[in-house]
Amino acid sequence: MNAQGISLLSSVVYFLSLGIYYLWAVPGILVNDSRKQVQALSVLQTKKFASRVLAGSWMMTKTFSVGQSR
User: Fold this and answer.
1) How far apart are CA 40 and CA 46, in angstroms?
2) CA dihedral sign of residues 7, 8, 9, 13
3) How far from the centroid of its chain's Cα atoms is residue 43's Cα?
4) CB of 43 closer than 8 Å to CB of 35
5) By the 8 A CB rule, do 50 and 25 touch?
6) What residue intervals traverse the membrane (predicted)?
7) What dihedral do alpha carbons 59, 60, 66, 70 form, nearest 10°?
8) For residues 64 and 52, what is the distance between their CA atoms, to the nearest angstrom?
9) Helix segments in the chain, DSSP class H
């Protein structure tokens, strides 16, 4: 797989995880109910994971774009 394909793949992963994050994590945080505290905890874990995924894919995209420009 060439650098352009990997860059495209990482950007797809980036937007996919961003979409999952906004569809799943944000409503869970907004709904502040005592029954959903457990869910909020799992959402917090998901948020941490999503931010790591986003940071990782962003770094990958940056690395490959720098590699392409040389």
Assistant:
1) 9
2) positive
3) 13
4) no
5) yes
6) 12-31
7) 160
8) 18
9) 3-20, 26-30, 37-69
pTM for the whole structure: 0.35
Token reading at 61:
């995209």
Considering just the CA atoms, what is the radius of gyration of the chain in Å?
16
Name residue, tokens 């894919």: 57
Report yes or no: 48 and 69 within 8 Å, Cβ to Cβ. no
Q: Per-residue confidence of the chain (70 residues) as pLDDT tens digits?
A: 577 888 888 888 888 887 777 776 666 655 555 555 566 667 777 777 777 877 777 777 777 666 666 5
Q: Per the structure block, which two tokens stand in for 32?
A: 């502040």
Look up residue 27 and give its two tokens: 């409503």
